[in-house]
User: Fold these one by one.
Assistant:
Number 1:
Amino acid sequence: MNRAEKVQRIREVLDELYPDPPIPLDHSDPFTLLVAVVLSAQTTDVRVNMVTPALFERAPTPAAMAKMPVAEIHALIKTCGLAPAKAKNIAGLARILVEKHGGKVPRTFEELEALPGVGHKTASVVMAQAFGVPAFAVDTHIHRLAERWGLSDGTSVEKTERDLKAAFPVETWIPMHLKIILFGREYCPALRHDLTTCPICSFAASQSRLRAAPKAAAKKKR
């Protein structure tokens, strides 16, 4: 199976499993999406969705969030990982949105990535999900699956993004990002995973990985 055939088969499996993938972070507009994605770093989406209702009830807009003391933001998000830094970043980005962007979330990567706590992955999610701009946000699930499936070599997130953009048609980037994340969570975990029975690894993983899989499984049973 050549690379093009592999990519096509991966698409077919993912399309069948996730014909209409949901956005896992609850939000109502670009601002609440931006804040939710900032909160999601090193935190599960489930945890983020538990804390954002109270946060957004208290401050649903950049103007309202900018007026909140950092300590109050922290109190509402304290169960998220890296909460102290995230509280400062959320307060800071809200002030910048008010002062420099008229209370709106900017629509360019450069302006988004200039905000506190917003890296390229976060900007990619916002550009794609809030504004419909083709982007391929690479998180830990996508990074490891791209390497496991032989679509990239795992050397860097930046290279994985370039390789996936080259592999998949641009019109599929936004839903494909969500589909691979969901697949990684539900079918293709990082540890204790049997590649030979995986709906995608069974044909996409390298032969050396597949040959090693039964041996690894045998050791676990001992």
Number 2:
Amino acid sequence: MTLTVTDYLDVISSWCFWSEPTWAELKRRYDGRIQFQWKIALMDPTGLPTSREQEQWFYRRSGMMMRSPFMLNTDWYDASLPEWLAPNCVAEAAKDFGLTDDRVRLALARAALREGKNIADWHIVAETGAEAAGIKVDKLLDRAKSPAIEKRIRASTAEFRALQITQRPAFVIDSEIGDRAIFSGVVKLEPLAATLDSMLDDAAAYAAHKAHFGDPPAK
């Protein structure tokens, strides 16, 4: 039985940041039973604020919704940028050094959203990512700025758009029996866990049936 959960995210998205406790708990709860992976889905101007004041308003709203004891930091924000390549490329590049977990992108998100660091600066981003990854800054930066990495995150962004949804994070759950569930912008644990439990149960039923009856007749 194979279930895969793909988390489509943008590293600097505040709503993706708020979803991280749910993501961590899902990985803990279903360890060994479900495959988890994340992919970059770049935000474009339609999903970005147009001013620092607007960003602060969004942060207050999401912070209240999540009952957060702290407010996110907007010092990193630059209204002139149509997208945030540096942090997303650095997070993606870390995968090529064996860092397929969450540590690098989480370090980058914290650097921006909690500490307000200028993550439009490739060197600052690379330093933050390299420290979290335990690799050399120059190697990570060179890889992050390579055409291959940008091509990869634009391809995963195109995958996200092909789903015809708009909200990040987007959790796409696929099973080997062909079932699919998509949660766009949902960050609470309960609906995701309930869906995973249901899909695992259905997959187990298929496996039991196959053990008793084998594959379907050819005709």
